[in-house]
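Deliverable D4.2, example record:
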Amino acid sequence: MGVTVDHRTFVIERELPGNPGHAFRFWSDHQLKRRWNACHPDWTVEEDWFDFRVDGGERMVWHMPDGTAQAMLATFLEILPRERIVYAYTMRTNGMAISSSLVTVEFVGREGATTMTFTEQAVFGDPADGDIREAGTGIGFTRLQQAMLEDDLATN
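Output generated by the structure prediction step:
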C-alpha cells in the first residue's frame, strides 16, 4: 500500500492598516496574536506557549467539544523585525500528524498601510485538510485586519 500526500503552496496577500512595525507586532506579541489567531471559541485550550525568537516556537493544544485533541507545533526559523518571519509547523489530530508546513510572512510598507504576503508550502495527508487550512487562514487574516483596525481606533 502506497502513501498518498497532497503537496501544495498557497499565497494570501492582505492590506493591513498602519506601518510594517504595527503589523509585525500582531505576529510577535503573544496577546495581540491571540486576538486574531484564536479561531475556535468552543475549543478548550489545554496549552498555549509562545516564545517569539529564532529557535523559539509556538505550541497550541486544544480539545474540541467532541473530545478530539488538536495541536499546532511551530519553530521560528528566521525573524527580521518589520520585514519577515519564517517558521515551520505541524498540525496533529489525536497525536497523529495531519500536515507539515513551511511559512514565510513578509511585510512591505505602502503609503500608510502594509502589504502582508503569507506563503505556505505544505504537505497534507488528506487533500480536504489542505482546502480547510487555506480557507481558514484567509478567514484568520480577515480577523487580523479587524483586530488592527480596532487597535487603531482605540489608540487614536
